[in-house]
Every structure is written in structure tokens, then in C-alpha cells.
TrEMBL record, chain A:
GO cellular component assignments: cytoplasm; nucleus; proteasome core complex
Quaternary structure (record): The 26S proteasome consists of a 20S proteasome core and two 19S regulatory subunits. The 20S proteasome core is composed of 28 subunits that are arranged in four stacked rings, resulting in a barrel-shaped structure. The two end rings are each formed by seven alpha subunits, and the two central rings are each formed by seven beta subunits. The catalytic chamber with the active sites is on the inside of the barrel.
Protein name as annotated: proteasome endopeptidase complex
Superkingdom of origin: Eukaryota
GO molecular function: threonine-type endopeptidase activity
A Gene Ontology biological process term: proteolysis involved in protein catabolic process
Signal sequence, renumbered to the chain: 1-20
Pfam families (UniProt xref): Proteasome
Organism encoding this protein: Rhynchospora pubera
PROSITE patterns, A to Z: PROTEASOME_BETA_1, PROTEASOME_BETA_2
Keywords: Cytoplasm, Hydrolase, Nucleus, Protease, Proteasome, Signal, Threonine protease, Zymogen
UniProtKB/TrEMBL annotation, chain B:
NCBIfam families: PRK03996.1
Pfam families associated with the record: Proteasome, Proteasome_A_N
Record keywords: Cytoplasm, Nucleus, Proteasome
Positions of the Proteasome alpha-type subunits domain: 4-26
One GO BP annotation of this record: ubiquitin-dependent protein catabolic process
GO cellular component, one term: cytoplasm
Described function: The proteasome is a multicatalytic proteinase complex which is characterized by its ability to cleave peptides with Arg, Phe, Tyr, Leu, and Glu adjacent to the leaving group at neutral or slightly basic pH. The proteasome has an ATP-dependent proteolytic activity.
Subunit structure: The 26S proteasome consists of a 20S proteasome core and two 19S regulatory subunits. The 20S proteasome core is composed of 28 subunits that are arranged in four stacked rings, resulting in a barrel-shaped structure. The two end rings are each formed by seven alpha subunits, and the two central rings are each formed by seven beta subunits. The catalytic chamber with the active sites is on the inside of the barrel.
Protein name: Proteasome subunit alpha type
Source taxonomy: Eukaryota, Viridiplantae, Streptophyta, Embryophyta, Tracheophyta
Amino acid sequence: MLLLVFGLSFLSFFPSLSLSQHFAPTRTKPHHRISVSLNLKQRKQREEKRRMMMKLDTSGLESFSAAVPSAMAAAEDQLFAPPSFDLPAGCADFDKFQMEAKQTLKHAKGTTTLAFIFNQGVIVAADSRASMGGYISSQSVKKIIEINPYMLGTMAGGAADCQFWHRNLGIKCRLHELANKRRISVTGASKLLANILYSYRGMGLSIGTMIAGWDEKGPGLYYVDSEGGRLKGNRFSVGSGSPYAYGVLDNGYRPDMTVEEAHELARRAIYHATFRDGASGGVVSVYHVGPNGWKKLSGDDVSELHYKYYPVQPTPVEHEMVDAPPA
Amino acid sequence: MARYDRAITVFSPDGHLFQVEYALEAVRKGNAAVGVRGSDTVVLGVEKKSTPKLQDSRTVRKIVSLDTHIALACAGLKADARVLINRARIECQSHRLTVEDPVTVEYITRYIAGLQQKYTQSGGVRPFGLSTLIVGFDPYSEKPALYQTDPSGTFSAWKANATGRNSNSMREFLEKNYKETSGKETIKLAIRALLEVVESGGKNIEIAVMTHKDGLRQLEEAEIDEYVAEIEAEKAAAEAAKKGGGASTSASS
């Protein structure tokens, strides 16, 4: 709209400056190509196109002010002065701007998930809250994905990304089983996923997952993320609530726990993370992976857990308020 | 019939792929190769044509390793073998990289056979003119395995097999004399099978032995001569026993 106005004003002030100078490329200039015989209809269509192009060709604007120096230029400086409002900060440096925009959109993986290996297998636990900025979009998201009967994956980051790629991994694991007549190892499965995520690096996938399972070598736990990283370890926690979960988990961890003790430790760790982190909450799910596959141990609502761990104490009243006697 | 053997992708009216069959002919003209699977050892043997005096025999290796736990011997076009072996070696390493596990013998055999099959169903290419014998130990089960592939792309597992020249007679011998063996006995069985079709003497045989612990080991000529001497002695003893027994029966009758 603005450009058209400029164009019109430009025309009104300097009609003598030939239009052809700026619109020449689209005008009928002697063409140097082989003439094609067109019927009437085609010729008409071509004319229309040219006319349309002439209207919207605004390349003349910049070249005009550059081409005409001296006094004339001074007069139009006011007319063609740069916009008078201030551009938002960072526009001059678009790369940094883009990066900052990406950062604000990054949800910093609002969740808490954890997994650890102990003598009796692997425990995997997660909360169930999904948030969009400050809005809680769901309190009942399944963040522990069952890849196959002996392998689990946790979800942190983009829910769609995690769900899709975990299902894709499940397909690949099954195909490996069929082709090689033996189950894929946790090492192999995590490597397959890490290689896929690495090939999509920089394209905006947001996944921070842990692959836990039991294979021929015993229990296995790997952390895989969308930057292409893959780590083998005994204890991991992923998500915005992970610092809180690590505090409880690292404090209470012993490799020789019983399944019940490990279960309670995982549940507590997630509960404490949901207490302090706003992006975690809902229901704590705890799974155990043993030699015969995984089994879901519990799913407890964190608010109920809160009152279980910290039951309400009836506080003794120190001073009782008495109504003033009627006058 | 002549019309159907020009292009590889063409079936003949009676269902033959002539190029594949001609490739099998090329295999039959190649040097003899034998493989035997024992309970803890696998042995590969190939017939070695007499080396010309001026040739450096070390550069003509007929039994090669694909990985630390897999070895291969083949019969047929040696140049095709080089290409196939290189691709298989790359696949072994690629598998180690993607699943952090060494290949199983079955996996790499399936890969080689798949490669051979691809060249029977493409335009403008001819099949690989070789059959391979692949031996090795599976990384976790530690069980020995012997597989054979052929130009058509089929593969199967064997307890003992032979390919190349006079493979039929070698296979007959193996079928008659095969029993579960281990260690030295497996090596002797392989050498005996080869000696059936090769001019006698350690000079014309190349043997390689693989165990789970020690990997692949090529036998020195001196060692092979030792085995050959043992085998000859056993044969002579068997003949003498037979003659002696026959004499006694004839005497009694």
C-alpha cells in the first residue's frame, strides 16, 4: 500500500523522468530471443501479465534516489526518509534476534523424569503435566512410553516429537528382531535413536529421553537428546524439575535397594520436584524393568502424596477470639 | 536358448536365469575350497595352485578375515571376490558403529548373499562369479558357524561343505566321514577332504583355523606337512588292518 502511494507521488512530481528508464525491462524492448508465433488469446494474456508487472515493479524507487544526486535529492530526503518509528532492539543483528526468539519458544523441557539402575533392574519414573508457557494444558500425559515389552522410553521436551520418534524406534526394534532372530540390545536401540536425532540436528526437534531396558548384558540405561548426545549411565533425571529430583535421588540412592525401596525413592524424588517446579505435577508414574520385562508399579496423584508425606497437624489455638459482649 | 543369456534380467521360457547358471559354471572352474565346523573350532581350506617362482606368495591370500571373528574363503573369480570382501568388511564395521555390537555370522552372510542377489536383478550388470564359505563365532553365544553363499544369492548353514573344483567328490567324502570333532580332528578332516582332489603334499593346500579365543590363524607349511604325514600314516595303518583282517578271513574260509 505504502509503496503504491510512493509510486504515485513519484509519478506526479517527476513525470518527465521517463517511465521507460525504470520499467524498461518489462516494456516492449527489442527481444533477442526467437519469436514465437502466438495466437490472439496467448498474446492478450502476455500483455496482461506485462501490465500487471509494470504496476507492481517498485525497483525504480531505490535506483531513482541513488541515480539522482544534488539538490533534487535533498528535496526528496524528507519524502523518502526512513520510517520515523524505532525498530525493536536486535533487528540490526538478525542472527542474535533469531536465536533469542528460539530461546523464548524453547519450553526448557517442562517436566520431571528420572531413571536409575540398581541391583534388581531399572526404575523409571515421571510426572504427567504438560504446560504451554504458564498454562497447564494437561495433568494426565503419559510420559513413559512403552517401546516394547522389555524397553521403556521417557518423554521430555516436545510431546509430539517424543511420541513419534519413540514409536518409530519401536518399529525399528521389532524389525531388527525379525531380521536377526534376537532382541536388540538397549545399546543398539539407543544408538539407533541417537543417530536419527543427530541427522535432524538443528531442525528444531526437542527431545530429552532416557532409554531403559533389560537385555542379554543385564539392565541398561542411556540418555539421548535432540542435540545428538548419547550418554550411558546409572542415574539420570531430565527436565525442568530435574535439579530437585537429583537432590532427593542422589541422597537416597544405594545400589543394593529392594524393589520396594527403589520404588519409594523414585516416587519421592518426583514428588519433591513437582512441589517446587511449576512445570511438573499431576500424577507420578513409576515403572520397574526386570529380567522379564517392565511392570508398572504405581501411579499416584502428587497432591494426595503431599498430604500423605506431610499430614495436616491440628495446630493448637493460642488465643481464642471471643465476641465482644453486647453493649 | 541363445536369446535368453544376453541380458541378466531376462528369464528363459523354462524359468532359468542363464547368467546365474553360467556364474555357477565359473565357480565350478575355480579352485577347490572346503569348510568344516567343529564344536569349538572352524577350519577353512583352499587348494593352492603352484606359485610361480617369481611371485610373492604373501600377496595372494585366499582365506581372508572380514572381522576379528569372521573369515571367508571363496571359489570363482578372484577379482569379484575382492570387491565383495571389501563391501563386507565395511558392513562389519558399520554394524559395530550403529548397534555397538560385532556382526553375527548369519548377519554378514545375509548381507553378502543380499549383495549377490542384487546383481542378479539389475540392468547392465552381471552376477558375482563366486561362491563363498563364511566361518566365524557369534559374539555372545560363542557358537561356531559355517555358511555358504552362491551367485544366485541363496545362503544356508552347513556342518561341512565344499565348493569350487571337484566339490561334489569332496562333499561326498565329507558326508561319508563327517562326525562331531574338535580341535585337531577338525583340521585333519578338512585336510583329508582336500587331499581327495588335490595332488598330495602340503605345498598345494592352504589351511586356516579359527577358535573363539585365538581368532584366525593361517597354518604354516611345516604344520600342514605334519598333518598330512599323520593322515598318510593313519591311512596306511587302516589299509594294513583291512588287509590283515581280510587275510585271516580268507585263511579261515
